């Protein structure tokens, strides 16, 4: 089973690499945002290895994770004065991150429930998540 899991993950990564190369070829002669595409491909490979081939919320998950990273990585004066709660309120970053976290929790809950309910095919369910939630 472990070898099957490794093979499935390799195929998913190879498929995403092929998609990435085809995307670059399709944009020949046009300016592209390579950084954004690399991040998107990395999120796709990671989420497919963790959750399976496709979930209804996969694109939402990628989008929310990108927003969360941008929000958390940006400059925020409240980071220098964590005890000054009013700075967190003025910046709005805390409430934004909490909102994003709730949405991520909802998506991950849906994915876990799909795995538990067995709505995924055997190939799709060979994921990190399956090994994490399986009974011992």
UniProtKB/TrEMBL annotation:
One GO molecular-function entry: iron ion binding
Keyword field contains Magnesium: no
Domain of life: Eukaryota
Keyword Oxidoreductase: yes
Location relative to the cell: Membrane
Bilayer topology annotation: Single-pass membrane protein
GO cellular component: membrane
Keywords in alphabetical order: Heme, Iron, Membrane, Metal-binding, Monooxygenase, Oxidoreductase, Transmembrane, Transmembrane helix
InterPro entries reported for this sequence: CYP450_71D, Cyt_P450_sf
Needed cofactors: heme
Family matches, as PANTHER family: OS06G0641600 PROTEIN, OS08G0105600 PROTEIN
Family: Belongs to the cytochrome P450 family.
Protein name: Uncharacterized protein
Organism in which the protein naturally occurs: Camellia sinensis (Tea plant)
């Amino acid at each position: 089973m472990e070898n099957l899991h490794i093979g499935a993950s390799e195929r998913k990564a190879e498929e995403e690499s092929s998609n990435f190369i085809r995307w670059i070829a399709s944009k020949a002669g046009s300016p592209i945002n390579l950084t954004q595409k690399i991040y998107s491909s990395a999120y796709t490979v990671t989420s497919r290895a963790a959750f399976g081939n496709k979930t209804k919320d996969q694109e939402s998950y990628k989008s929310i994770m990108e927003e969360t990273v941008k929000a958390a990585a940006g400059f925020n004066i409240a980071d220098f004065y964590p005890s000054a709660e009013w700075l967190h309120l003025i910046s709005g970053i805390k409430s934004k991150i909490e909102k994003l976290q709730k949405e991520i929790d909802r998506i991950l809950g849906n994915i876990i429930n799909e795995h538990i309910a067995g709505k995924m095919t055997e190939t799709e369910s060979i994921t990190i998540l399956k090994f994490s939630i399986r009974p011992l």
